[in-house]
Amino acid sequence: MKKIFRSIAFVTLLCLLASCNEKTAFQQNARSAAPVEGGSASTSENGKKTDIQLIANASIQLGLTTWKKDEVVHFSVESDQAQSVEVGFISTSSKVLTSEIVTTGTGTFTLTVPNDDEYSLYAKNNTASDVRFTVVIDKPMDRPGI
Q: How far are the Cα atoms of 11, 91, 125, 136 from residue 79, in angstroms, in the given order?
């Protein structure tokens, strides 16, 4: 609980520094949220939906799940703005990134798991301004928010 409180305080400080007037996704769901240097993320209880906020050029890795080679993962990226974000998953052992870049703010795509391994969700802001977007995957993360 102490760690969550410190994380909330850190994200609150980031919001104050950025003149943020609304709750971040992290503050709305502190139970399964992961702070990151330069942003925050909050994953739903079922591990399929993640709200992400990132400052310019920041990236995040969160959650852990085990997938098998050739499994297919469907992604949906949703944002109110046209922005360039890279979304996918990264192997925790080999650090191999499998991803797509969405430049319109909204998009759907499918990625195939390259190897039996444990993976984390990966997202990167490719723009020079802050972004806020939602990623929905069809397979739940076993341990979201880690």
A: 21, 26, 12, 12
Helices (H), the chain: 2-17, 25-28
- Beta-ladder partners of 112: 72
Other beta carbons within 10 Å of 17: 8
Longest dimension (CA), the chain: 44
pLDDT by residue, tens only, the chain of 146 residues: 444 434 444 444 344 334 333 333 332 222 334 445 678 888 888 889 999 999 999 999 988 999 999 999 999 999 988 999 999 999 999 999 999 999 998 999 999 999 999 999 999 999 999 999 999 999 888 887 66
Residue 112 C-alpha from the chain's centroid: 18
Write out the H or E segment, with its range, that includes residue 35: strand 33-36
Q: How far apart are CA 55 and CA 71, in angstroms?
A: 32
